[in-house]
Amino acid sequence: MFVLSVDLRIKPENVESFIARAIENSADSRKEPGCRQFDVLVDPKDRTKVMLYEAYLDDKAFDAHQQTAHFKKYLAEAVPLLASRERHVWKRAAP
After folding, report:
1. Structural domain boundaries enclosing 78
2. CATH number reported for the structural domain that contains residue 42 in this entry
């Protein structure tokens, strides 16, 4: 299992636009054969704070995800709307 969490801070003027793009990317990602979960989570107290939670079968499935057209579109259109983006890779402690 390959898990990625991404802590995001959206520029306040871009919240609605970013969230729409992130939801579109997550829906397309969940259709990938190696994607097990992809959630867009919003802080209920501050809509500029978002976390992406992604789980893939393995590293290869995540690598394949990064080659998809929808992911490349997300990078081009959504990432510029952010103030910050920090990625964290997680591994299971035991099988």
Report:
1. 2-90
2. 3.30.70.100
Q: What is the pTM of this model?
A: 0.93
Total domain count, the chain: 1
DSSP-assigned letters across all residues of the chain: -EEEEEEEEE-GGGHHHHHHHHHHHHHHHTTSTTEEEEEEEEETTEEEEEEEEEEESSHHHHHHHHTSHHHHHHHHHTGGGEEEEEEEEE--S--
Inside any domain, residue 95: no
Q: What is the mean pLDDT of each run of 10 residues along the chain (95 residues)?
A: 97 98 98 98 98 96 98 96 97 82
